[in-house]
């Protein structure tokens, strides 16, 4: 599709008629103290009317900055935006004065941001904030705007819009706030909505609600959407076209089926291969892209993916290829000299070690390593309800949870936020004292006192690799501390030796022991966290969301590392996560939790293949699969509503308020966990009747 | 909102009670004896018996619990006892001076807010420009320069330009508002400069912080006029910490202007404070501390209520 200049608009009308946005050589530079960072480097793309375009890439690749620069929302002093042109419906928005740009914002181009919790003004009412663009752009009176705001709120699925209009953001949940943001975005019926990671902060069932809503409304009103995301499943499920970005450049673009079925850039191939798939049987290592993206302050000449590319030739380091049409599809363009070879060989360009097949098998003949039975964890809460009255009660964070972990086994614990999965981990470690229940580790009953005896054998890896390492200690000191505390190695020389070995084991270099945490990347820091846990030679590691803060290619590296260590050392894991695909990939057994209770337990393939509990089914339905072919055919029922308050959980089955298959019996009593297969149990009334 | 306000107001009483008890107890521990100071002040030689007799007369020999009882009984009626030095009721001693201190504090606050808001806002909006640097120099000056020294400069300025000093003694604002204002504007300026500097710096940093919030970006993305982005979306959020600073500074002015009051020869609370300490006039001191503490409590109450008015999250807190 030829790019037309502004003045040749008439002549090119037949070709460019449906082009809404035409970005040509957009470049964004940030001035830093020690140089200039080119966060977006000469990218060009088009968006047609009503199109759903996804921009994917890992953090720091420039996808958000490019979107913000379209709206000219970057701080003017720090960022310099240049472009041949950014034509929006014939208007070059890169050169119009700011006062003109303001008229477009919210009127013809809207934006939805990542953080619904902070994106709304806490001191203004929801109504005020939805009415604002209507009053500003459409000249409505306050009364007219309010009527329209109520319509909009109803459209985006906010119940009782009239009553919620005078409320403030803190009275809304995260999902509801994101609906408000969409209502604001839709207020003036724009031509283009830019959604910057709109669902990253939300739970998977809420994510599905929000994305369906966005897709549905944009289709109905003919609004084009640019969605920025790192979640390939979301891209596959919703996007028409995809731009893949790497190190400030677009390295491949095409239709969703082009990119997912026939990726032609080694980076795209690697990215797709490094995502665990929940629709495929378990097993096999994930492909990983080694190394890290280049520093954009001094990017290497030639292809930026050169250092990490499995098929790089010497010539790649000298000059880089611009986007070229790729065989097969008119839309498909790739920036790689060897795209044909990559297209043909696909995933084979990444050597995956076929000899190691996934994770080890578990010997369940002996005693379980960890046995949790009837674990309860209650937290007391109190708040005022009236003048002199207050509510004193408790939240059942964990309610009668039992499961076993055998030596060398990985048990995955999944559920949405607030389901109690982290509380289970903390109770096992006695970071919180459990209210009741039995925990036995290595045949030793664990209580407040005896926990000290097994601390060495039970280690933990935390979610946030940034805040779980002391910034004032070097990596060496961080790793040395537990060795000293537990008196494992008293000789300082040998301790250093040990630290070097540990670093090598988790894929770092011994010289890194002199570094401070801030000098390492997120993935490297998580490796340090793993090394710290390993230093005790534990039998069990509790991993609390160990990969959720990491990019997919790094996530794959860490998952592989954990699996390798298990095979080598026979460590058992309790793997707590919200990502269903990751949990399936790594776990022998999966436990699904909802509002503090176990809904279903089963061996991975079985549980994902034939879920017996409606909640498991709903979770699986909500999680998109990174394959547009599958997504298109998929029939999904999306769970309605939100998580009920854990202070006042529903009677009977806790899931009954949201369950699509709810019957009268559901509210009468808590269903028991019934055996439905050899290793498969679920707690649902419907199973009882069967 | 009403519930929140009432609860805050009801909380004032136990707080004041605690303050009253604490003040009484702490002052009894302080060494020194007013009777000795008073009777030997002019170099007179007095016998031990006379001192004892005087102590008896002033009620200082009563057991502590009795003194405490009398003191606590008097409080609800506004009876703070009698000054041990002048033997006039403490409430009268304080009453005759508090009006002046109050007026000065209010005048200084008005001046400070008038100066601080434009300075702080401009400084934040034009961060990193010459204007910002100039304002920051002015405000750092306000914090560095002692108020009383500035006061002396102001007096000299008044003499040089107006050829006369404000008349000594103070005229009530109700009798002669102009003279009263002319007298008080100078101390108010000297105190207000420092005050405004503190507020302006606070305002600057909170505006800068608020302007980098996500919801400001949302407002811009909606196409809201930049002026409205700052006033409607930014200011209200930025005011929260600023209000606290204004309140704290105001309460401080009520009792803490000892030196400034002497420079301008004002008969305010500050001077009374120093006198009562020097003379070990326990009853007066007790009354003063209690008065200032009460002011603090009420200013805090007002700040809390303002907070609630500004921020719905506090208002709806149960």
What does this protein structure show overall?
The complex is a heterodimer of chains A (690) and B (318). By secondary structure, chain A is of the alpha/beta class. Among the domains of chain A are: 264-358, no CATH class; 410-433 and 545-690, Rossmann fold (3-Layer(aba) Sandwich). Chain A has 23 helices and 25 strands. In chain A, the strands form four sheets. Chain A has an eight-stranded mixed β-sheet, with helices on both faces. Chain A has an eight-stranded mixed β-sheet with strand order 19-20-21-16-22-23-25-24, with helices on both faces. The longest helix of chain A is centred in the first third of the chain and has 18 residues, at 204-221. The termini of chain A are far apart. Chain B contains 14 helices and no strands. Chain B has helices spanning 2-29, 34-39, 48-58, 64-74, 90-125, 130-144, 147-162, 177-211, 214-221, 226-256, 258-263, 269-279, 282-310, 312-315. In chain B, α7 crosses α8 (177-211) and α8 packs across α10 (226-256). Chain B is globular, with a radius of gyration of 24 Å. The mean pLDDT of chain B is 85. The A-B interface holds A 71, 73, 77, 102-107, 110-111, 113, 115, 118-125, 132-133, 136-137, 168, 170-171, 181, 184, 383-385, 387 and B 3, 6-7, 128, 213-215, 217-226, 232-233, 236-237, 310-313, 316, 318.
Outline of the structure:
The complex is a heterodimer of chains A (690) and B (318). Chain A is an alpha/beta fold and 690 residues long.
List the helices and strands and how they pair.
The complex is a heterodimer of chains A (690) and B (318).
Chain A: H1 13-16, E1 19-32, E2 35-48, E3 52-56, H2 63-71, E4 79-82, E5 85-88, E6 91-92, H3 98-104, E7 109-112, H4 126-138, H5 142-155, H6 161-164, H7 174-186, E8 192-196, H8 204-221, E9 224-229, H9 232-238, E10 241-246, E11 249-255, H10 256-261, H11 266-273, E12 324-325, E13 333-334, H12 339-345, E14 370-384, E15 390-405, E16 410-414, H13 421-428, E17 436-441, E18 444-445, H14 451-454, E19 458-461, H15 475-485, H16 492-505, H17 522-534, E20 540-544, H18 552-569, E21 572-576, H19 580-586, E22 589-594, E23 597-603, H20 604-609, H21 614-622, H22 628-633, E24 674-675, E25 681-682, H23 685-689
Parallel strand pairs in A: 3-9, 3-10, 7-8, 8-9, 16-21, 16-22, 19-20, 20-21
Antiparallel strand pairs in A: 1-2, 1-4, 1-5, 5-6, 10-11, 11-13, 12-13, 14-15, 14-17, 17-18, 22-23, 23-25, 24-25
Helix pairs in contact in A: 4-5, 4-7, 5-7, 7-8, 8-21, 17-18
Chain B: H1 2-29, H2 34-39, H3 48-58, H4 64-74, H5 90-125, H6 130-144, H7 147-162, H8 177-211, H9 214-221, H10 226-256, H11 258-263, H12 269-279, H13 282-310, H14 312-315
Helix pairs in contact in B: 1-13, 5-6, 5-8, 5-10, 5-13, 6-8, 7-8, 8-10, 9-10, 10-13, 12-13
